[in-house]
Structures
1.
Amino acid sequence: MRKPRNIDAELRALADKAKGLKARKITQLGELVVATGADNLDADTLAGALLSALEEHDADAKEAWRRKGAAFFQHARRSGAPRNRTPEHAPRAS
């Protein structure tokens, strides 16, 4: 006879994996904000821009944003560096 599965252990393992994936998603979103230079915006402005994007119903505008985002990632992949990180956007030495 085969040993019964430990369902509780499997559920705990899945919950741990889900937590790890959620943490990775949050980290990657933060990296995206930094890579685009949006970290120079204050939190209220960034939140407002994101909320406006969610509320946008114009498919053409969303498609234009999608193309611009895809171009950003293509450029970043080719150059290996964030696109909007110019000297005025670079972190200042303290």
Note: Residues 42-82 form one domain.
2.
Amino acid sequence: MTDRRSKIEHVLMEMLQMLKFSFKQGRGIDFSAGTSEADIEAYLLARESGSIHVAEDVHSYLRRLLTEICE
């Protein structure tokens, strides 16, 4: 980290470094994944049945996202 980035919280910096590593490994982020009508319908049905838990805490959500990206 440089002085220029000193205002970034350490947790965010770690997330950014993990994301950068993921990109260098050839794994990108597909922002359109899961947005088809069938995907949305399947998600809503699974959520309604209780088989999907949506984290209320943003930090929990980000940790789960990073875990998925790094796998």
Note: The CA atoms of residues 15 and 66 lie 7 Å apart.
3.
Amino acid sequence: MKELTYKEFAARREAENLRLIDVREKDEFAEVHVKGAELFPLSEIRAGELPQEDEREIAVICRSGARSAAAAQVFEGAGFKECINVAGGTLAAIEAGEEHVERG
């Protein structure tokens, strides 16, 4: 598993066509999330549900980085290409500026 800070992820996201999966719960996602993130809660991942894989490399984000690291390990164990854990999570995205997030 790779790890990038939110700023590193944001700088590479478009150029590398990175897919961002937010593994927080629905209420957390509805409150605030990174623009363009897909919601796929860790509770569902732990229940054996996985997102449909596509050609893009996956970056995984949560509130601060712990849940996303756990989800990235599950994804890689299930055969997904190497995943990126976004260290600092959504909190770091908020700190980077409101242009990075959507609020409910």
Note: The chain has five helices and seven strands.
4.
Amino acid sequence: MTVERLPAAELDAVFGLLANELRIEIIRTLWEQQEEPLSFTDLQSLVDVRDSGKFNYHLNVLVPAFVERSEDGYALTHAGQHVVGAAVSGRFTEADEITVDDVPAGECMFCGGHLSARYEGGDVTVDCDDCEDLVTRMPIPPNTVSGLDPEDLPAVFSRHLLTLTNRLSRGFCKLCQGRVDSSLTALSSSESVTFRPSLDVRFDCRACGDRTHLNVGGVVMDHPAVTSFLYDHGIDLRRSYVWELTSLLDPEATVASEDPLRLRLVVRLDGDELELTLDETATVVDHTRG
């Protein structure tokens, strides 16, 4: 997939509007008073700016992108709320300020050894103490980890990873929320970043061009046939470490057809098995349980 270079004007249209202390103060004030819209007079008074002309100019710069104006007054738009959310997340200011040292994170799917999870530089990393293989690494906003008991880090990270995986598998970019196209890379294994090329799924965002690779087991994890199969065997995805689901992340995988591409997966648990057939977009098109 080829993505056009993002024009500087588009970035300036976002960041340029916010590059002013008074505008930031207007957004902060509207956030703090968000229960109901504020009139021009009340907003100006709370921001504490005497020059009405100056205040009106900077307020109008924020309309309509970050602030909406109605008969009832002024309020933040959805985009304005996202600006506050991005700031509160700590992604841009606190990534290097919070660390969590190694804590136990379950059993390694590669060697059966002990896994450890840690948070450093804005990333959670899970790797094996014995074989030293990297299991997964992903950025998480500092506010998700701040105040967390260290031993709870793996569970929180697992739920975060599951949420991200579900978002991508349902067609939405993890960065810009744009639509993504998913594809199996079983016939072009050089692109794979998974430990087995046949299990690799690539997601390309149509809007921002972000490219993400996931294990196909994670992609089908929220399919009803899969969740019910796991639950019937005592596995609740909401309370499990997703990287320990070896039967799903390392299933029997066979390319059943190349044109059209069809990938057959067999997941086994306690003598029971679930067979899934996926098309070229990693969509389950058939499943049987036996």
Note: The longest strand covers residues 261-269.
